[in-house]
What we know:
Shape: globular
Radius of gyration: 17 Å
Strand order of the largest sheet: 1-4-5-9-8-7-6
Helix content: 25-40%
CATH class: Alpha Beta
Distance between the termini: 32 Å
CATH topology: Protein Transport Mog1p, Chain A
CATH architecture: 3-Layer(aba) Sandwich
Amino acid sequence: MRSVRVVxxxxxxxxxxxxxxxxxxxxxxxxxxxxxxxxxxxxxxATDQMAVARDSFCARVAPAAVDxxxxxxxxxxxxxxxxERAAVGGVTDVVHEFGCRWRAADGTAAxxxxxxxxxxxxxxxxxxxxxxxxxxxxxxxxAPAYGSTSVAVRCADGAGPVTxxxxxxxxxxxxxxxxxxxxxxxxxxxxxxxxxxxxxAAATA
Length: 205
């Protein structure tokens, strides 16, 4: 899977470098369903001035936001923490990040993760290059910034899933998010941008 290769490339690059919203109201039988809270669009945020905690944020992601990103209810969920053995990027190993993934019945998957070690600006630049140069990936033109050093990439090989990911540096935290679709979903980039805004809101320190 192309997204597996992207995660592996970024993780390998890091290792080689030095050094909710709640709503209240009428909940009677005739009450209309509450709309899913929408995060502020990335383009409207000064993301280069935001800080992210290098810690678990998954519990703060609203289930309704997950379902909206997937386009269907989540059927499977996984999360992992720094120092645990986990299956990430197609490899089971001890991870040095905090993250989570939700998957729908059709294979669509939404993920978010943040590296546990602090990341310096020069390391972030190397991580950005690794994501942009991964096999089968290209930068998304005109994508909004995702931190002070960031990149948005679309990865596909023509036969497998299509994945749009955002990666960026927030303070000393390298935050990533991705939305993977088993088909050629025309609005995947826009959905990924909204999903990544949701991840950022949950991870903001």
